[in-house]
Amino acid sequence: MLATYLIGLREGLEATLVVSILIAFLVKADRRDRLVQVWSGVGLAVALSVFFGWLLSYTS
Length: 60
Fold this sequence. Notes:
Largest sheet: none
Structural class: mainly alpha
């Protein structure tokens, strides 16, 4: 159980790092109008992850 938790934690930290770099780039490039799309993608990714987690738990 601990190994699964650590893998999930590592993947979450990597995703946070990628999103942070993308946001920093957009702010530095003065493309703040694209931040809405980035946050929409993050929200959609979280929603899909929760849905598939629920689906796998429900069907097993």
